[in-house]
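Q&A log
Question type: sequence-to-structure
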Amino acid sequence: MGRYILTDCSNVVLMWATNTAFGGQRTGHCLIVDNILVLLPWEQKETGYLRLEFHINQARLSAWKKTRYYCFSSDIRQTGVHQSLARHELEQLSPSGRSRPVSLEGACAYRLGRYKITADENKGIAWRTAGECDRIIGGDCMIESGILFLGPKEHEFEQGQRRLFYNELKLLPEWNATRAWGHQESLLMCENPEREGSAFDIWDGDRLKACMARYIPFLNGPEAQAKRGTRSTVR
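Response status: OK
Response body:
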């Protein structure tokens, strides 16, 4: 998968490895959170292959297909706390440990740090915050695998409303429909990681609506993930 070799031991131990300068290699653990492979920080640095040898070995392996996306654990933040999630907290987001999100009923607004998160009756979610030049900026959001992702800036609103925005933000209830959140640029495609494209690039309206219906429990909560197979090594 891109610059990584992944080793799966019957879905019990999942490891990543990548090549570093002068024939070095870094390795670490991974976690699967529904449809996202989360790469945890590297734990060991050791002697490996030269870059060309690493890529030759990598090219012989099958492609990773167990998840559609991947991201780094440092890019996933805990809701209500301005820090990344620890490993045990990420494990609680996995299919076996993820709790059911809080329902969003009708049009509503929430506070997520310096962001205002709004949800409408059509399952659309958007964000707003105070940007440069005293302008209010905003964009769309999506929920993938129980994690809220904020998309790129798409709108600019009235100028001179910064103080009013933050005064109103303080009065909103805290966002609690997901236990974790991040920015869209951190969510990358497994099939074509060299492109470094984000998930928002391939989300059409129908797919976005389907995901919203699944992960925002206007309908039912997400179903349990199917059990995964035996040991395999993939790229």
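Response note: The radius of gyration is 19 Å.
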